[in-house]
Amino acid sequence: MLTIFDCDGVLIDSEIISSAVTAEVLNEEGFAITADEVTSRFAGLASGEMEAILSEETGLPVSGRIKERIQAEFDRRIVHVKAVPGAAELLDALDGPRCIGSNADSAYLKRALTSAGLYDRFKPYVFSAGEVGTRKGKPDPNVFLHAAQDFGVDPAEAIVIEDSFAGVTAAVRAGMRAIGFTGGAHSWPGHAEALMDAGAETVVRRHADILAVIEALGSWDGRGV
Question: CA 164, CA 117: separation in Å to the nearest integer?
């Protein structure tokens, strides 16, 4: 059984940083939006989709300069990112192959996961959607299908841990089972329901509960983990 982890909001508590920075800069640039709105509406989307949606809604372009401001401030703050509580303990207990499937680019993933003390637990199996397969990001299943192919695993034999609607949707489209995760600091009211609506088989809010769920899903229909 292959376990595929999303990175931001599942393994590292970066989504709350990203949403805060994005909201701060956008408001300074004339876009009225809160950090909670950024999280609930745009968490997990591929790069560029938020900008396209905001531009269409407001009639104002989200320029390259704005994106550069957001990225620069995010990069400054991400050096202090921490692992989501319980993530390291889950990885200690989890047997079988594992990898990361993320919309973020590989340079960022290495930097952020290293800061959180988790990179060595996955390398070299850290896959960036924009750098593998069709180069399409979630909600496209590209990165998850690439991971299954790389490990020689049937997609039906993979379990995905995701905190976003887009990520769960990608897992379902890949023919994989998804566990929704709401234990990141960015979680919001209605988060669990959104993940279930996307197709998650169940939702957990603590890493301590994930292993039991993986084992249960692995034994379903007589399959072993």
Answer: 23
Q: What is the pTM of this model?
A: 0.83
pLDDT for res 47: 60
Residue range 86-97, pLDDT digits in tens: 999 999 999 999
Q: Which long-range contacts does 139-142 make (Cβ < 8 Å, 24+ apart)? A: 139/45, 139/165, 139/166, 139/167, 139/169, 139/170, 139/173, 140/46, 140/170, 140/173, 141/170, 141/171, 141/173, 141/174, 141/175, 142/170
Query: Percent of the chain beyond pLDDT 90?
Result: 69
Across the chain, mean pLDDT equals 91
Q: Alpha-carbon distance 98 to 126, whole Å?
A: 9
- What span, in angstroms and rounded, lies between the C-alpha atoms of 111 and 199? 31
Contact between 125 and 114 (Cβ < 8 Å): no
Burial bucket for residue 136 (CB in 10 Å: 0-12, 13-18, 19+): middle
